[in-house]
Amino acid sequence: MTHRHHRTGDGGTAGRARRSGRTGAGGTTRRRRAAIIAGALAMAAPLTLDTAGNAGAATDHPIVFARYTAAAPVEDLYAISAGGGTPVKLTHTATVSDVMPSWSPDGKRVAFVRYGSGGAIDGIWTMKTSGGDLKAVPGTKGASDPAWSPDGKRIAYAKPVGTQREIYVAGIDGTPATRLTHTAADDLHPTWSPDGKYLAFNRADASGHSRVMRIRLSTLAQTAVTGSGSHDWTPDWSHGNRIVFSRVDSTGFAHLYVVRPDGTGVHRITSARYNDKYPSWSPDGRRLVFTRGGGDDADPEHLYLVRADGTGLTKLTKTDSHDMEADWRP
To answer: How does 237-269 read in b/e, with b if 16+ C-beta sit within 10 Å?
Structure first.
């Protein structure tokens, strides 16, 4: 059985772990309890996005996400059309968990994190969307939160340094990684600016607060985007140069907020009495996909779509499952 309970800044446990380190208000991970068997790294069947749910239609940009159910407590990756339909299963690994997917800019590969024996993170892997050509990203043992750069040449991620996690960037071809942050806090969930010159990420401190930060790659200069007393998590930077994130606000629930990279123009998108988390922008910056669920692990978590102005809320996945960590294909 792999672990499900993990704080993600939503005011309660949030289904399966989005993070391998602390990602919410002071919570810590429970180790995954899974065993690797021979051949577990092989994909059992190819992805067929062109036929299931129209997820591969030329006019559509599919959404990839992680799913688990009570009957199948190990996570696999799925893809679904933004127009709905039946999700396509991308990975078929009965004893290891595949989580935290990230599309390559050309949509030909998916990066993800694989958990192995005893809850240890095997690291970041990439695969073709056909399900083959599985490759490990060198030097990412223990890493999480992969984010593919706009030019497709690099991956940013969070990696443990002692008891904390820091942000790194490495070449997809094996170029040695560069450590970008050096703090006593947990730095998590990097996301690239459209021009590839900056990363935004969330920084969680020992008091349980988390804020969105911005770092310039050329100088490593860091700027706070949101306030120090916030509970802000999992930012995503749009092609239109806006940052969306999940905030536990005064209601006690996690809602989606948008902010400009300079920290101005903060406004709330969702406001229901649910926990809304893991937002990801559509390629045109007009809509968002996110996970909505309750605070208890028994509550299903589904993917929803919403316009950036908060209108047009649509439920995308509807099975009795936990669907999270969605990434919308560029």
So the answer is: bbeeebbbbbbbbeeebbbbbbbebebeebeeb
The pair of three-digit structure tokens given for residue 311, joined into one six-digit string:
């209108």
7 DSSP assignment: B
Question: Which pLDDT tens digit goes with each residue over 50-87?
Answer: 433 343 333 478 999 999 988 878 899 999 999 999 99
Q: What is the pLDDT of residues 308-323, one digit of tens each?
A: 999 999 999 999 999 9
Is the Cβ–Cβ distance between 286 and 292 less than 8 Å?
A: no
Q: Is the pLDDT of residue 1 over 80?
A: no
> Residue 161 and residue 178: Cα distance in Å, rounded?
13
Whole-model pTM: value is 0.84
Chain segment 130-159, per-residue pLDDT in tens: 778 889 998 898 999 999 999 999 999 999
3-state helix, strand, coil in the chain (%, to 5): 0, 45, 55
pLDDT for 246 equals: 98
**Cα distance between residue 6 and residue 23, in whole Å:** 8
Cα torsion 189, 277, 148, 180 to 10°: value is -10
Contact 237, 194 (CB under 8 A): yes
* Backbone φ and ψ of 76, nearest 5°: -125, 165
* Planar angle of CA 281, 220, 136, nearest 5 degrees: 60
Intra-chain end-to-end CA distance of the chain, in Å? 34
Q: Indicate the residue type of 248.
A: V
How many percent of the chain have pLDDT more than 70?
Answer: 80
Which has the closest alpha carbon to 323: 305, 300, 298?
A: 300
In the chain, the amino acid numbered 26 is G
Question: What is the enclosing helix (H) or strand (E) of 129?
Answer: none
Report CA-CA distances (Å) from 198 to 130, 180, 205, 218.
Answer: 31, 11, 22, 8
Beta strand 121-128 with 109-115 is: antiparallel
